Amino acid sequence: MKIFTKMYDACLRWARHQYAVYILGFISFIESIFFPIPTAVMLAPMALAKPNRALWLAFIAATTSVLGGVVAYIIGAFAFESWVLPWIIELGYESTYNRALDWFAEYGVWVVLVAGFSPVPYKMFTLTAGALGMAFVPFLIASIIARSAQFFLIGGLVKWGGEQMEHKLRQYVEWIGWGVLILGVLAYIIYTVSN
Predict the structure, then answer these.
(1) How far is CA 33 from the centre of its chain?
(2) pTM of the model
(3) Total number of domains constituting the chain
(4) Residues 6 or more apart from 40 whose CB is under 8 A from it?
């Protein structure tokens, strides 16, 4: 049974939907605040479905993600204790939040640059930056750089690879899917054992 191939084909169908761009923007926006599924999960198949629009889709994802990050910063600044912290505790993200605090203490607001590629969700950095009262302009600049780098990397690779990449990816999607799943489980086990 080809689980990942079926999921991949479904994502490509959804990516061709007439409202897919709006859905991408919405998911990218809410992912910066609270949504658990990364934007890249939708961006990659959308870009593969329309490689000629890959960079435009990356721009949409980056822009809406940064706007969501600004909203999360404001929420963190004004409602962290009353709304965000109970949510972090209830969902079991305390260790992730503490790691974000440690990184902020060590690197300052520029840790947001790393957030674009780290396993710690971007939303944790946006909310925490607001809660800690980090300088807004450096936060905004770091967010623009981090989110643009991640999404334009995906869009650029798809545009460069074009249809050939889509066919190759579909050919190896089962191997890739199971490999990522196994790596994720191993990373979780290593992280749990080390803490």
Answers:
(1) 11
(2) 0.77
(3) 1
(4) 150, 151, 154
